[in-house]
Design brief:
By secondary structure, the chain is α+β, with helices and mostly antiparallel strands. Helix content is 12%, strand content 25%. The protein has two helices and twelve strands.
Length: 274
């Protein structure tokens, strides 16, 4: 009798566990189909730099950055030394992107210089004392805008970013105080599910007002697309020593990148050439 009661209790516990598990199962039909490989439309540029609502200080800063190849520094082109581009630049999507939706987190996976993002959608509040990262800390909410019982837009806010960061390779700068806040509205085209839009608003102290642009991505039509590995450090000829950027020649010798650039300090090389 005791054995029968034990068996019955175990069966009841298993049934309850299965029932709870089923109730909490992730229903992917309530979310947009974002599977596959997403590629950017157009060149990996943020926008026309001349249309950026920069403050006078940062407009002058941009002019200094673009004064000529021989005067270029790494400050607003950090990715040449393989530093992550950070937000919002990662959404230029330099390499194809994969979006993985889970019950509590939406992942944006990219092969280019640690561009992957983790967007928390579990209802959490902003944590205290977060250590800033290039990609920042992102919290999102899925929204059913047309009331059909299916989420059709992901609304995201990203904070706690660190620098140096730029919008793209033009050197278009974000403020050095790293107080940037980025808001996004991500959704599929209602008439073409193979087109994805990301409306991005940047709030930054280098801007006179929030700056909104829309990025467009298209889904690769192949059923099994190729995912290319991208290793930034492989074949990279830029070398940063201290605060100076140098270049490796084809024969492996260190070269200056601008006129009259001083060589690095060689004090720890006992046999350094005088």
């Amino acid at each position: 009798m005791l054995k029968q009661r034990s068996s019955g209790s175990i069966a009841l516990a298993v049934a309850l566990w299965v029932g709870i598990g089923s109730a909490q199962a992730f229903d992917e039909t309530k979310y947009p189909d974002l599977k596959g490989q997403w590629m950017r439309v157009g060149a990996p540029r943020w926008a026309d730099p001349s249309k950026a609502p920069l403050t006078a200080e940062y407009r002058a800063h941009l002019r200094g950055q673009r004064s000529g190849p021989e005067d270029r520094r790494t400050g607003h082109r950090p990715t040449i030394t393989c530093l992550p581009p950070g937000m919002p630049r990662v959404m230029n999507v330099y390499e194809p992107m994969e979006i993985v939706v889970t019950p509590h987190t939406t992942h944006m996976l990219m092969q280019h210089i640690h561009d992957s993002r983790r967007i928390f959608t579990d209802g959490r509040d902003w944590p205290q004392g977060v250590e800033p990262t290039f990609a920042g800390y992102s919290i999102g909410t899925w929204i059913d805008e047309d009331g059909d019982g299916r989420h059709d837009r992901l609304v995201v806010e990203t904070r706690d970013m660190k620098g140096p960061r730029a919008y793209d390779s033009t050197g278009l700068p974000l403020h050095e105080d790293n107080k940037t806040v980025i808001k996004e509205r991500i959704s599929l085209d209602k008439s073409n599910p193979n087109t994805l839009y990301d409306e991005i608003t940047v709030i930054d102290n280098a801007l006179t007002h929030p700056w909104t642009i829309t990025k467009t991505y298209v889904r690769e039509p192949k059923k099994y697309p190729m995912w290319r590995e991208t290793v930034c450090a492989e074949g990279n000829q830029h070398v940063v020593i201290g605060k100076e950027n140098y270049f490796l020649s084809a024969d492996g010798l260190l070269m200056p990148v601008r006129k009259n650039q001083a060589p690095p300090d060689l004090r720890y090389f006992n046999n350094a050439r005088k």
